[in-house]
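User: For my dataset I need records formatted as: sequence, then structure tokens, nothing else. Please produce one.
Assistant:
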Amino acid sequence: MKSILVHVDASARSAERVKLALALARDHGAELTTYYGVLPAMLATPWAVASSLDPANGRLFDEDDRRHRDRARELVVRMAGSAEVRWTGFDDEDGNGLAGHFARKALTADLLVLGQQDPDDREAGAVPTDLVPALIVDSGKPTLVVPDSGRYDARADAVLLAWKATREAARAAAAALPWLTRARAIHIAVGEGAGRAADFAALEHWLRLHGAAGSIERHSLPDIDIGEALLSLAADVDAGLLAMGCYGHSRSREWILGGATRTVLRAMTVPTLMVH
């Protein structure tokens, strides 16, 4: 992990994402880049374009955008201290919109750090409500989603890995190796009837080959309400990280996500590493 890209906006909650990303960058000797991902007011509100024809209104929109951007930069500078952090952000020169521009930047990052969407946060600015699922699906990159409340450490003594014999789960396991190899306890969650004993043994052997020295325990989950069961198990085992495959696709710009993915994104209580 040598390149980390973290989303920032004008909200105070950005501080927790930046703090976590900084700790990860220090742990792994990685370069950290912040991405200011907020839509300009002119693009965010349908009536803004017409209103902006009045020069006074246009200046108000520009001032609002500048205030949000300056607050985000001040937060990054304050959190970074003496650490070197790069700054980039949204421009619509390629016409792909914020999510498309961000996803393109993410293609050369090893890890994305995003925040759980909080619809009640009025300080963030105009962040698209579908930004997190759009980036997970479009970039294909490992994405660490940080809950919208709480404080978290970069390292996790206990890691919960959601497992079944699919490429998404396998990619999530590979992406989680920096945490799995340092964890004192690894908990593997499998659905009832979702995997053979041989599959679990092969996974355990693979983890040991990569240097995972912690205890490994298997947990069976019901085949219904898997997202809720995962979050409940994460709390029971005091997991510092949940790693899971993200199942979903886009259809005419609508993000169609699997039930467990939707549940975890909506109700997460622990940082969650997702890979599509």
